[in-house]
Amino acid sequence: NAGVTQTPKFQVLKTGQSMTLQCAQDMNHEYMSWYRQDPGMGLRLIHYSVGAGITDQGEVPNGYNVSRSTTEDFPLRLLSAAPSQTSVYFCASSYTGTAYGYTFGSGTRLTVV
Amino acid sequence: AQSVTQLDSHVSVSEGTPVLLRCNYSSSYSPSLFWYVQHPNKGLQLLLKYTSAATLVKGINGFEAEFKKSETSFHLTKPSAHMSDAAEYFCVSPEGGYNKLIFGAGTRLAVHP
């Protein structure tokens, strides 16, 4: 089925470890973005991309890197995990001019110990 | 900068009674506004969207919302709650040409038999 696929669904990391959260969409959407969800704070934008080769920072980019080499994929890298990065991460994608709204993945629950 | 404020962090209703989830927005111009729903351990699903057409917007699962510029509000309503409506609801406004979504803190709806 078409949509946004995130892997893994769950992950436990030790402080200082690195990892990549994967996000792929098969809808040919130009826009892709990463959000983190923390209790009582809604979702906050980490990084976003308006097309292959183009990325920009969102509201809470520190500690995260992204790249967009293809239209389909938008991985999120944690370079040196910290307990403050314990959160649920969502990837989302959309066509240009989101009158259509974004399509969200099912999320990755990350715990950093 | 745009912002959205959800006035209630928790709302509890009985099955069959009306639902009202409140959202106020802050914007220097007439914004676009969305409501998303998140069921437990799931991703986010678009309920409805306002994009400066009709001020009364109908969405999925019997929900609707009315855009009131004079009150800067976009409250979500449903005439009769169902047990399956129990979820967290987010009022959302896009920013920056739809590149970024600004989320309210969320309202958790509980539905009791």
Radius of gyration of chain A over alpha carbons?
13 Å
Mean pLDDT score of chain A, rounded? Answer: 92
Amount of beta strand of chain B: over 45%
Number of helices of chain B: 0
Protein architecture, described:
With 113 residues, chain A is mainly β. In chain A, 0% of the residues lie in helices and 50% in strands. Chain A has strands at residues 4-7, 10-13, 19-25, 31-37, 43-51, 54-57, 64-66, 76-78, 87-94, 103-104, 108-112. In chain A, strands 2, 4, 5, 6, 9, 10 and 11 form a 7-stranded mixed beta sheet that branches. Chain B is mainly β. Helices cover 0% and strands 55% of the residues of chain B. In chain B, strands 2, 5, 6, 10, 11 and 12 form a 6-stranded mixed beta sheet that branches. Chain B has a 4-stranded antiparallel beta sheet with strand order 3-9-8-7, with no helix packed on it. Chain B has a two-stranded antiparallel sheet with strand order 1-4. In chain B, strand 5 (33-38) and strand 6 (44-50) form a beta hairpin. Chain B is globular, with a radius of gyration of 13 Å. At the A-B interface, strand 4, strand 5 and strand 9 of A face strand 6 and strand 11 of B.
Quick summary of this structure?
The complex is a heterodimer of chains A (113) and B (113). Chain A is an all-beta fold and 113 residues long.
Keywords:
heterodimer, A: 113 residues, mainly beta, 4-stranded antiparallel beta sheet, 11 strands, globular, B: 113 residues, 6-stranded mixed beta sheet, 12 strands, 0% helix
Topology:
The complex is a heterodimer of chains A (113) and B (113).
Chain A: E1 4-7, E2 10-13, E3 19-25, E4 31-37, E5 43-51, E6 54-57, E7 64-66, E8 76-78, E9 87-94, E10 103-104, E11 108-112
Parallel strand pairs in A: 2-11
Antiparallel strand pairs in A: 1-3, 3-8, 4-5, 4-9, 5-6, 7-8, 9-10, 9-11
Chain B: E1 3-6, E2 10-14, E3 19-21, E4 23-26, E5 33-38, E6 44-50, E7 56-58, E8 64-68, E9 73-78, E10 87-95, E11 100-103, E12 107-112
Parallel strand pairs in B: 2-12
Antiparallel strand pairs in B: 1-4, 3-9, 5-6, 5-10, 7-8, 8-9, 10-11, 10-12
